[in-house]
Amino acid sequence: MLRIENLHATVDGKEILKGLSLAINAGEVHAIMGPNGAGKSTLGYTLGGRPGYAVTGGTVTFDGQDLLELAPHERAAAGLFLGFQYPVEIPGISNLQFVREALNSQRRARGQAPLSGGEFLKLARAEAAALGMDAEMLKRPVNVGFSGGEKKRNEMVQMGIIGPKLAILDETDSGLDIDALKAVGEGINRIMRAPDKAVLLITHYQRLLDYVRPDFVHVLEAGRITRTGGPELALQLEREGYAPVAA
Amino acid sequence: MVSVLELPSPRLEEWRWADMGALRAAADAPQRAAGVDPKSLFLDIDGPRLLFVDGAFEPAHSMPGPVTIARMAAESAHPLGSLAEGEGWTLSLDREAAAGTVQIVHIGSGCDSQVPARIALAESAAASVVETFAGHGWANRLTRIALGTGARLMRAVRLVQADGFVSIRDEAEVGEAASLVSIFLGAGGAGSRIDGAVTLAGKGAFAEMGGALLTRHEQKQEAAVAMRHAAPDGTSRQLWRAVAADSSTASLAARAEVARDAQKTDGEQSLRGLLLQRTATVNLKPELEIFADDVKCAHGATVGELDARALFYLASRGIPEGRAKALLTHAFVGDAIGRIGDEAVREAFAADAEAWLEVAL
Ligand SMILES: Nc1ncnc2c1ncn2[C@@H]1O[C@H](COP(=O)(O)OP(=O)(O)O)[C@@H](O)[C@H]1O
Ligand SMILES: [Mg+2]
């Protein structure tokens, strides 16, 4: 589904990704772990097409098409979802309005009819309920005044409504208490565990992986994947830290 | 009509951002069809309706209800307001009377049009007045407002003239526990000067003047408003938003004066500008002059661009760039338009702002 080959990317002229390769097939869950500053968020932003993140080498294909050629909103319509490490607050736009615009923009781009207000509301309410988010929060401005955990839950509600093919979730587990972690983990499994979908979890900790069991675990250090293994690698990293693995 | 126009000099501090060249050009412009259907400018709200074409009342298209029409002098010392004399309208309500929503549409076909107006609400009377400016030319208005004890006036004014210039001068006196809310939207192609002097004359008065000015191309719009707290326990709000695209200029000057015995005054000024391109200009001038010692006056003035992080967040969810910019800009002006109490009026104004954004972005 996603094939990254020898990706080099710079942020503000500084090279952060230095020849990263990774292949993710449909039906798989991959986890990327790594020390702070390794370039994990940069990978997510580069795949999402954030302005200022310049690809200087390598290729990325998504479902066979050149991902790097697409504008950010086209990547979303193609089925890519980026869960933000720091979800953005948007005063003056309600969650409902935001996600409805998002979903219907994607649907139009794919040649599907937009959902009506009623259809959308039903879907949004169901997703909020499934993730344990108060339906009243759907009416509030996007992420404004939300706690860290509420913002992450809100990312998952958006993912549930949008229903992407590939979700790249950047530290969706940080800032969550144990109940929220469980809800988010179950949400990821429910929404994304399917033969035609895939997940790339960016995380610092093993604990999310207790709920969402990865098929592959990669270590990202200094802009490259330095090691790949199964779920046991995450446990080993938790015990030993990154240094022994990299050595 | 106005042959030798004496206009304020830009050397005067209060007029330094005023685009008097655009006003003069609008006044001198040859007449041409207004190109708008007045019917489309009245909102679907029951109540009195008045149509003025080139400053002349059109009885055939009006149902004035309690509003009366007469020739009036321009009782103002204001350099533009004092020019607004001739046929004008008066809404005068007795004690506890209610007028519902009065709609007034002004259509111009070029040249100048001068209309004086007076709104006088006696004790506990209530009215809502919605004005729309469309067409071309120079529309000059003087509106004098007097609110008796506990009277309430909600005023909403939208400028959607295709080009030309609209100058509005409001002079208001708000009595004890009375409430005046005036919200303006500049969402057309005309230059503008919205000029207000509001005196909170009675104890516990509430006065608000604010709105949103949207400018593009070479257009210049401005608001210059002064709130004068002359009595204790008054509350005033000046919440203005300016959005400037291309090489346009939007200017906001808001002043609050608190007299020595206007204790417990609660004043707030919030002036914010959004530059859609770096070639555009937003001028902000918040001013406070306080002579009382027990007052609360908050003021903020900021100019910025659209938040790049928010734009990417919207794009990452599939919203195209132009639409994302429109949504964020609409949210920005929503603060100001949201102050309009009547939902139907608020929605109509929001739709005008939306239509402007669709073209400008
Ligand atoms: N906007 C930026 N400008 C310059 N450097 C940046 C910027 N964002 C991140 N970096 C740098 O890029 C490197 C990788 O950051 P990031 O991808 O956020 O790491 P991680 O998510 O793995 O902790 C770090 O050295 C960080 O300081
Ligand atoms: Mg990070």
From TrEMBL, chain A:
<keyword id="KW-0547">Nucleotide-binding</keyword>
<dbReference type="InterPro" id="IPR003439">
    <property type="entry name" value="ABC_transporter-like_ATP-bd"/>
</dbReference>
<dbReference type="InterPro" id="IPR027417">
    <property type="entry name" value="P-loop_NTPase"/>
</dbReference>
<protein>
    <submittedName>
        <fullName>Fe-S cluster assembly ATPase SufC</fullName>
    </submittedName>
</protein>
<dbReference type="InterPro" id="IPR003593">
    <property type="entry name" value="AAA+_ATPase"/>
</dbReference>
<dbReference type="Pfam" id="PF00005">
    <property type="entry name" value="ABC_tran"/>
</dbReference>
<dbReference type="InterPro" id="IPR010230">
    <property type="entry name" value="FeS-cluster_ATPase_SufC"/>
</dbReference>
<keyword id="KW-0067">ATP-binding</keyword>
<comment type="similarity">
    <text>Belongs to the ABC transporter superfamily. Ycf16 family.</text>
</comment>
<feature type="domain" description="ABC transporter">
    <location>
        <begin position="2"/>
        <end position="247"/>
    </location>
</feature>
Automatic annotation (TrEMBL), chain B:
<dbReference type="InterPro" id="IPR055346">
    <property type="entry name" value="Fe-S_cluster_assembly_SufBD"/>
</dbReference>
<feature type="domain" description="SUF system FeS cluster assembly SufBD core">
    <location>
        <begin position="119"/>
        <end position="332"/>
    </location>
</feature>
<dbReference type="InterPro" id="IPR000825">
    <property type="entry name" value="SUF_FeS_clus_asmbl_SufBD_core"/>
</dbReference>
<protein>
    <submittedName>
        <fullName>SufD family Fe-S cluster assembly protein</fullName>
    </submittedName>
</protein>
<dbReference type="InterPro" id="IPR037284">
    <property type="entry name" value="SUF_FeS_clus_asmbl_SufBD_sf"/>
</dbReference>
<dbReference type="Pfam" id="PF01458">
    <property type="entry name" value="SUFBD_core"/>
</dbReference>
